[in-house]
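Before the break, one more example. Copy the sequence into your notebook; we will annotate it together after we see the structure.
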Amino acid sequence: MNRRHVRGFAAVLTRRGIHFVIVGGAAVAEVYPSESVDIDVLLMAREYARAVDELDHDPSVVSMSREGGEMAGGHFLVGHTVVRFDLLNPEAFSGNRSGDEFFDFVRRSGSRRTPEGVVAKVAVVWYMRLVIEGDAWLVQVQKILRDLRAGAPWDLTKDVRRIAKRFGVEERLDDRLGLVKQEAERAGLRATQ
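Here is what the structure looks like once it is written out:
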């Protein structure tokens, strides 16, 4: 997956009138060397179902799956390459606020505009990786360690904590950031907080 693929998917979303923010590894790769095998996009909660239906009918989308109300995904064709994408519902990350409040926060103050589209800041990506329900967040720890190895500063966790406080999930995040810190130190990465 490369920037051309991200631009291609952004063009599909824009053509379909879908509001989005690029998140995940593609967002991190805008700032630090990072690899991602798919493109993750955060959608507006109130438009989520419509956006999924729109993409399901787009000729460049070659497959689509729906995994409940929080995530759908599939594959789209850009040039001669098939690229995986995931559509994220902001309700999964909004804590004690609405999904649209989380989307608006990310769009207005947790992102930046790039040639590929609106891209989340790394602290937002880390927050999203760590706040998800259940044990799915555990696999995200290695991705954060990868980002640290690529040059992302540990101080980004201050912004992650601020986001968690804003959305009322600071207790959940503090425990999880503690594990990330422990793993970073074990891997020889500096974690000072």
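Residues 1 and 37 are 6 Å apart (CA to CA). DSSP finds eight helices and seven strands in the chain. Try to locate both features in your own notes.
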